[in-house]
Amino acid sequence: MILVTGGAGYIGSHINKMLAQKGYETVIFDNLVYGHPEAVQWGTLEIGDLADTGRLNEIFEKYEIEAVFHFAAYAYVGESVAKPSKYYNNNVANTLHLLDAMRRYQVKHLVFSSTCATYGVPEKMPITEDMEQKPINPYGASKRMIERILADYHKAYGLNYCCLRYFNAAGADPDGRIGESHNPETHLIPLILAAAAGDRDSVKVFGTDYPTRDGSCIRDYIHVTDLADAHLRAMDYLKKCGESTCMNLGNCIGNSVLEVIEAAREITGKEIPAVLDKRRAGDPPTLVGSAEKAKECLGWEPRYGDIRVILEHAWKWYCNKKY
Ligand code: UDP
Q1: How many Cβ atoms from other residues are within 10 Å of residue 265's Cβ?
Q2: 272, 261 contact by CB (below 8 A)
């Protein structure tokens, strides 16, 4: 049995689906604060919070868990600046509860959802794993702290881990059953598609004076199904005694905000009004990741690297959203 914390969320639900497709039995542990019960179409949903150690013990007693995928976390950068206590408690303290439950029940393998936000504002691109991590907001800092805790738990208690540092997760399950749905929505692609669908008047471009080719921010958008594939490979890697480590997951392709909007106009055939706006606090100009390490260690290769394919799948989901 595989435990997926936060498996009712955007990324966790795609990993859960792929695990089920590959024949794994899964238990999804989610407090449903941001997760959607409708996204849990595979495996067993157990509602609960990582802060509740009694409930965690129940889960580890009830199921024979062989590995854990840990997605449960808050992930709004802006909110993390305003409410660091919420982020450090939920992301860091609650992860300790999970890790200690794993120790108690001798579960040795953990695939952890980390982020390129742990790097802060890097000096060169593409970002490689050996570059210094200097997060600039509590969200990124909370994930960085967990990476450190995992390294210490590995040394002291033999926990095996693989931290996957995602760049910008995007797109949706190609068959349209699950996809991205946040409330509130703050991410670029769903907001662009809302404007395309007429659910919003326009999309804002946060910053037009960055030192980039068109002045808007550049990000590395990675398809959520490619992320799912890498996660399953990370679990196999740990089972085969792969070294506990951290890896980037990105396409090494940078698309600017203006380029993504233009590509979305082509894919949707809609006008998509864009309003040029000021910079959003905490946004580095460019984040593009090298995933050479993941390719080498996991034999992973993204299938849906083209931003147009990412947008096509996201649009298909948006037009038939079930939650
Ligand atoms: N962005 C934007 N308008 C929006 C939302 C986001 O211009 O309404 C920009 C944002 O400044 C960033 C990029 O789009 O450069 C991706 O932002 P998102 O919030 O999707 O992901 P993040 O990079 O924060 O993880």
Answers
A1: 16
A2: yes
CA distances from 239 to 2, 69, 159, 232 (A): 13, 13, 12, 11
204 lines ligand 1 (CB under 6 A): yes
Q: Is the minimum distance from the CB of 257 to ligand 1 under 6 angstroms?
A: yes
Q: What percent of the chain has pLDDT over 70?
A: 100
Distance 167 CA to ligand 1 centre (A): 12
**CATH 3.40.50.720 in the chain, residue ranges:** 2-170+222-249
Please determine, looking at this structure, whether the domain spanning 188-219+252-320 carries the CATH number 3.90.25.10.
yes
* DSSP H or E stretch at residue 262: helix 257-268
What CATH fold (topology level) applies to the domain 2-170+222-249? Rossmann fold (3.40.50)
Residue nearest to atom 10 of ligand 1 (CA): 206
Residue 272 CA to ligand 1 center (angstroms) comes to: 16
Q: Is the CB of 205 under 6 A from ligand 1?
A: yes
218 Cα: distance to centroid of ligand 1 (angstroms): 9
| Residue ranges, CATH 3.90.25.10, the chain | 188-219+252-320
Is the minimum distance from the CB of 278 to ligand 1 under 6 angstroms? no
Query: pLDDT by residue (tens digit) across 161-188?
Result: 999 999 999 999 999 999 999 999 999 9
3-state secondary structure of 7: coil
Question: What band does 290 get if pLDDT is binned at 50, 70 and 90?
Answer: very high
Calculate the CA 267 to chain-centre distance: 24
